[in-house]
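Hi everyone, sorry if this is the wrong subforum. Our group has a chain we'd like a structural model of before ordering constructs, and none of us has done structure prediction before. Sequence below.
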Amino acid sequence: MVEEVQKHSVHTLVFRSLKRTHDMFVADNGKPVPLDEESHKRKMAIKLRNEYGPVLHMPTSKENLKEKVPQSASDSYGHKQYPANQGQEVEYLVTGVALTADTKIQRMPSESAAQSLAVALPASQARADANRPVPTGGEYRHPGAPDRAQPAGMRSVVMEGGNAKNSALMAKKAPTMPKPQWHPPWKLYRVISGHLGWVRCIAVEPGNQWFVTGSADRTIKIWDLASGKLKLSLTGHISTVRGVIVSTRSPYLFSCGEDKQVKCWDLEYNKVIRHYHGHLSAVYGLDLHPTIDVLVTCSRDSTARIWDVRTKASVHTLSGHTNAVATVRCQAAEPQIITGSHDTTIRLWDLVAGKTRVTLTNHKKSVRAVVLHPRHYTFASGSPDNIKQWKFPDGSFIQNLSGHNAIINTLTVNSDGVLVSGADNGTMHLWDWRTGYNFQRVHAAVQSGSLDSESGIFACAFDQSESRLLTAEADKTIKVYKEDDTATEETHPVSWKPEIIKRKRF
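Answer:
Right subforum, don't worry. Here is the predicted structure as tokens:
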């Protein structure tokens, strides 16, 4: 019984693929020639014997039989014929053929309806449709990955010399996050007090002997890096100091603040030797070009300015942002200047022309931090919605680092690929740069006597040896972190699983 159902299931495909046979019955004038029943049966028998003979002996698969079929009489070909109208419909599955929406469930036609099936699809097209994968729409497709994987349940039939060979189409492996590099955890080992206000900025000098901080108490303080003791206090700003940086080319310290002033300090005499006038509002950040004597500052007046260090001349005013410019970074390669703004955009600038090269609009909230990788030609930007990684020179998007759900004020990265993000709520997250894996989260206690609401990280930086991490915080302290020397991959394993990548494009 199962064999008979199998044969007639094949007949169904045969009847649906007889369009070429139909051409035999058309005369030269284009009009169909009526055939008597005997002639038609002879031609059908020849067709079945010559072209479909091997298919009629396909192996039987019992699990594909959905329902027992009632007994019926034989037709003129010597095979069982099943009546079409017997009160209940007979449903069956075509054995060994990939089922599509067109061939999934059919009803066995009667002999009188066989001729109407002669205009069905050609056999080659029917086979192509049967082997076409059915998209599910549920899988994630990574950019640049091959076509969507086929469902594991799909089967195909390969016809070779009259034999049917069932081969399972294996589901392609979904893209997964690569295993991140193991990094030892960082632990707090020193808290430095001395400022009377929020510590807003921090920088380490090139010789790695001392570091400098700027605060809301309007002072700039220089600290010994090894002992954490105060060496010097500089006064001169009349409002919060928002940015400090030490030159690698000369014994100069540059500072800027909310008093609209940009100052150059001579560290041999510990006094201001130059002022850079031009900004119309608070100056939020500054950076020095690594190879030429150029200083770049950014301000709440929506501009960034390029200054000649020696002549104090304003070389360019970089206009284009529509809100406060919160951060600026310089590099020797193109583009040489990168700015992040409260207008949610990042701009890459042409230093010579003083014009925007590229505007990146992927962030949905203000961009307060930008950091350049010391070895790779890439950079990262921090915003309350996401940390995003980009590739120079055109700002091609790489990936999102999600999970630090706070206002991110600062970013820093070392050559080992440890990215640190500090936020307004006092949390600090450490990431593996390559994979974006968050391997540690830190929330240090505030200084004794401070309110819990005074928990915030405004700036952070690695020292020149990259063995210490310094943070400037809202509890008026500087915290110093070191790697845990006793940690190993066994004591602090990476809690990573090869889950499917879920990266947002923007």
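For your construct planning: The two ends are 59 Å apart (CA to CA). Helices lie at 2-16, 19-22, 37-51, 123-130.
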